[in-house]
Model the fold of this input.
Amino acid sequence: MKRSITIAAILLSIVALSIGSLFYLHRVEEEMTGLLEGAARSAQAEDFEAARQTAAKAEERWQEYEKRLSLFVRHGELDEMTKVVAELTDYAQQKDAALFCASADKAASIIRHIYETELPTIKNFF
Amino acid sequence: MLIVFVRSILLYLLIIFALRLMGKRQIGELQPSELSITILISNMATLPIEDSNIPMLLGAIPILALVGFELLLSNATLRSKRLRKVISGNPVVVIREGVIDQKELKRLRFSIDDLMEALRENSVFDVREVYYAVVETTGQVSVLQKFRSQPVTPQMLQVKGADEAPPVVVISDGAIIEDSLNAYRLGKDWLLKTVAEQGYQVKDLFLMTADKNGETYVVPKDQAAYRGKKGKKEADG
Done:
């Protein structure tokens, strides 16, 4: 009986942790995508100072999130995201709108992909 | 993470299904569910160790999930005979009243060599001696010999006697095994007194066994072997 309770607790914890991590990832995805799209819009409007500031904020937020995400997301994708986000401020300083927008789009795609691969869909199960 | 959890369970069910399809020959001594969990866990445990790109949590969760699922399943099979049949299968009689059931052997893909090997493992070298042989759910074969070939038992000879608990080890390599003493309610004082009566100290004994009646068997340490060991240690030092 004791063992059954332990196992039930472990399984419930796993399910709770899985669902919790999914919601956390969704929050990260929404916030990062919002910041990156905002930065890209500023760069397109050639407001590079606003783009740089938003990109710097996105980088700062990402560094916070990455620590937690590395507990349950494969590190390869997180490293790729870190690299791309770090490049954004450089492109804003160089006032290169095309490269900035391309990198922002790539970063948004990476975080979206991380979230989508964690979603409990038929495609992901198989 | 949810993906890993669900995938673990899906793979677990898949492997049980595959092992049930493969039949008893491939199973050996484990139940199908136990074997599948052994394969999965041993494989999964290596992944986060080999690949640092994989978070440890992603290695631990499937293992915990599988162990949990295995326990839930084993609890469920205890309660449901039907589920037990699905998960573990049924024992199959391959020799019935001295007649080999060739159809069942073929269905289990047991060759005559496999059958003879299993009989020899049961100390039966002549198939004519077998009355019943059953392939258990673990893949092991249980044998009931014909009456004329069965070993003689005290019951057959109508010899009377009492059942006795086997002796337990109470001193192992100079150390007292208190669990054994407690199990037979012998006590440490009794042990020290018995050892002293035989002219030894506890540290002098390599092995001492005792039964419930306090009957003992003593093997003193081979001093030459211990001196050799000590001498070697000193030489190494």
